[in-house]
Amino acid sequence: MISLTIPRVALRAAAPSRQFAAAANGSVRGVKTLTEAVGEVIPKKREELAQLKSSSADKSLGEVKVSNLLGGMRGLKIMLWEGSVLDANTGITFHGKTIPDCEKELPNAKDLGLGGKEMLPESMLWLLLTGNVPSNEEVKQLSAELAAKGKLPSFVEKIIDSFPKTLHPMTQFAAAVGALNHDSAFAAAYTKGIKKTEYWQPTLEDSIDLVAKLPAIAARIYYNVFGKGDGQQKIDTSKDLIGNYAEMIGYGGNEGLTDYLRLYIAIHGDHEGGNVSAHTAHLVGSALSDPYLSYSAALLGLAGPLHGLANQEVLGWALGMQDKVGPNASHEQIKEYLWDTLKSGRVVPGYGHAVLRRPDPRFTALSRFCDDRPELQQSSIVQLVKKVSEVAPGVLKEHGKTANPFPNVDAASGCVLHEYGLSEFRYYTVIFGISRAIGALPQLVMDRALGLPIERPKSMSIAALNKHLGNN
């Protein structure tokens, strides 16, 4: 077996256990660390999985059809994913909580005495890892831990700085994340020797470290490619994860954008396991690749135009509409533009979804944010996107070729970034990449805690498939 780990002077195989013990001893007045909270959840999850295997291993989850094999496995129930469930009608739920539930229950910026009022990605990370709502103090403690671990190693800074400015930001992002494997606690522990039942501990250690460093990676790429931001990735331990990120990219004084990024990153974090980026992280991780390698691969999937690039395509289309019909277009003008798009053989970007058959609750959350901010109520592009969401479903229903005529999250997300001045389209997926780690990495921890096997589906050639079906 070829190892991708660069050995260090002292392997840290014992570090996870020491860290776990320290975390338990470091609890203050009932406030848990995230590591301690995850450790409490795992025994119950292991028992639930054992009972499921014992009672239901031979039960069917449905029939596999040729259309599933040829259609990208669409709809097949073939993954265990703990953090979230996506239902065609109710939308996404995180451990049973809807987005409105999360907005009410998860600690937000105001709860922690920060400017703004949106839920914090740290709160969502805690929920996805444990299934429980953290206290304000627990989130504050987690924010401090992420800030303490947020600085990049100098060799990663040099790697990013060496890239040509023309190299796509997502390629740079994936490469930098993969390079952090150099210091992987899991890889070191595995090389030294560690019990399978303890795999989750260094996996969690790596995952927290990676979440902490993603903003600094993204900010350094932003500075090198677009010349914006502080260029130093300075981190203030009194700020939350996104407060520091906004500061690093030069928008620290913009409370609206900072709060929007909190909401955006929290609700984009997890969208069940079947999407390309989440599935890729799980697949690569199933080979016991550490979280840095697994998430680096996930980012390369996210970079594809059918996945993470959708919001910039929507924004480009909307700006094109604005150029043609003007900033104060009527519903009738919008309807005509929609029909022109459809009759030309193109799709209306930002509408429809592979699973959903109702309006995307994430779109609803972002729309609510826009309605709460006076500067966005006065934005011509934001208001145009809102008008499109009122007109497009009727046009698409009449057109009759869209299973879901309602807006998805991409219909709204890019226009707000653009309005706040973050107008570099090629960078938008990097922001998505910061977010998706909040869902993909907790599942890697759970994969290792539950001892899930390497993923290895059976494949068939066209000839073999025809033979099996008796078509020859």
From TrEMBL:
List the source organism: Ceraceosorus guamensis
* Molecular function as annotated in GO: acyltransferase activity, acyl groups converted into alkyl on transfer
Query: Which GO BP terms apply?
Result: carbohydrate metabolic process; tricarboxylic acid cycle
- Report the domain of life of the source organism: Eukaryota
Major localization listed first in the record, in broad terms? mitochondrion
- Give one Pfam hit by family name: Citrate_synt
Q: Which InterPro entries match?
A: Citrate_synth-like_lrg_a-sub, Citrate_synth-like_sm_a-sub, Citrate_synthase, Citrate_synthase_AS, Citrate_synthase_sf
Q: Which residues form the signal peptide?
A: none
- Which PANTHER family does the UniProt entry name for this protein? CITRATE SYNTHASE, CITRATE SYNTHASE 3, MITOCHONDRIAL
Keywords assigned: Mitochondrion, Transferase, Transit peptide
Please give the family membership noted in the entry: Belongs to the citrate synthase family.
Per the record, what is one GO cellular component? mitochondrial matrix
SUPFAM superfamilies, A to Z: Citrate synthase
Q: What is the protein name given in its UniProt record?
A: Citrate synthase
Q: Where in the cell is it found?
A: Mitochondrion
